[in-house]
Amino acid sequence: RYAWGLNELKPISKQGHSSNLFGNIQGATIVDALDTLYIMEMKEEFKEAKEWVEKNLDFNVNTEISVFEVNIRFVGGLLSAYYLSGEEVFRKKAVELGEKLLPAFNTPTGIPWALLNIKSGIGRNWPWASGGSSILAEFGTLHLEFVHLSHLSGNPVFAEKVMNIRKVLNRLDKPEGLYPNYLNPSSGQWGQHHVSIGGLGDSFYEYLLKAWLMSDKTDEEGKKMYYDAVQAIETHLIRKSSGGLTYIAEWKGGLLEHKMGHLTCFAGGMFALGADGAPNDKTGHHIELGAEIARTCHESYDRTSMKLGPEAFRFDGGVEAIATRQNEKYYILRPEVIETYMYMWRLTHDPKYRQWGWEAVEALEKHCRVDGGYSGIRDVYNNHESHDDVQQSFFLSETLKYLYLLFSEDDLLPFEHWVFNTEAHPLPVLRKDDGHKEENQK
């Protein structure tokens, strides 16, 4: 009603919201929510959205975009919509957009730029990122989508670009076995030695594991990189608070910052999802780690007035799982905690995960729901809502989808057949035996 065909909704002022992440490409929320509509069997809305994509989704625009955000939301959303519905328009649009992103890889190392003008093909990095570096979570979160683009287009270039990123990473020394968040695409050397499993790092680790799972467990390189990284994370970043809460700290040039971001809370689900393939009988240990992270993240929600978690919370100066800085007290409808509940529920069927998920539903309804949609909150410790008036596209693609899956049967998008990209877009596992089926069907 208020922002159809624009990128995001401002649910209080009832108008469109445009983030510079998408340049002037339009339709982020529509594309991001396609698969959610389909999974929830909202057939009429899905048909409307599909018609909008056919007529109006246009990539021939002179605009600078975030390669990472456009990949996970637009490419991922289109790929899922294609795999779920079989509608050819989604495949064509996904491949067309993938081709527009290829110039981002035109760097001396092949590590892509963060920002790309999709008309001129000129790329650059975020001016604030360590000495012109690319960001680990950004260039490390292209793998799943680009492998599928090669699979669906028959053009190997997409998969080659992302496999080359691994080659560069494997040649480099990792400080303490950890991957710094910054890598210079020209020199191929690390920037500042900051390590995070939250923002700037998070989905790189997720995609190592999921690349292995999506390959039908044939991508041994991805598997080894993942389990080696988890080993280093356990040794250097995972700590227990005096109150017994397990958390994942951030590492800054050898010093730990005892802070955990809401984004880091996805890791509970990741550890549990990877438990099955863990080396030397560590399966139970990885599940336990997932459960402990889930509990810590639930505490970060439970210790606020609104029962919604802050952007970041700390374990120092006598506080545990509480945000101490004003600029960390906001909640922007993020999915990561609910994502972990969904994985923990599917992998353990412990009823507390559904109970915790329902607490989040009640809090969202009570504090975030407004007349025109759902809004983020500026301070979750306050008793009075101060809304930010933005409904992020990931609220529909991730937060609500993970909640729906948490309360659905396990045979809806079963894990043996589907892997979720970091924007919760399901992509099918590529079976060892069906590599050429798609090409033959064309």
Molecular structure report:
The protein is mainly alpha-helical and 442 residues long. It has one domain: Glycosyltransferase, CATH 1.50.10.10. It contains 15 helices and 18 strands. The strands form eight sheets. It has a three-stranded antiparallel β-sheet. A three-stranded antiparallel β-sheet has the order 8-11-12, with no helix packed on it. The longest helix has 20 residues, at 283-302. The relative contact order is 0.11. Residues 437-442 have low confidence and may be disordered.
> What is the CATH first-level class name?
Mainly Alpha
- Gap between N and C termini: 38 Å
Strand order in the largest sheet: 3-4-5
Query: What would you say the CATH architecture is?
Result: Alpha/alpha barrel
Strand tally: 18
The parts where pLDDT drops under 50 for at least 5 residues are 437-442
Shape call: globular
Radius of gyration using CA atoms only: 21 Å
Beta-strand proportion: 5-15%
Biggest beta sheet attributes: 3 strands, antiparallel
Structural class: mainly alpha
- Counted up, domains total 1
Q: How much helix is in the residues?
A: 40-55%
Tally the helices: what do you get?
Answer: 15
CATH topology: Glycosyltransferase
Mean pLDDT: 97
Enzyme class: hydrolase
Cofactor: Ca(2+)
InterPro entries: 6hp_glycosidase-like_sf, Glyco_hydro_47, Glycosyl_Hydrolase_47, Seven-hairpin_glycosidases
Active site: 69 (proton donor), 202, 311 (proton donor), 336
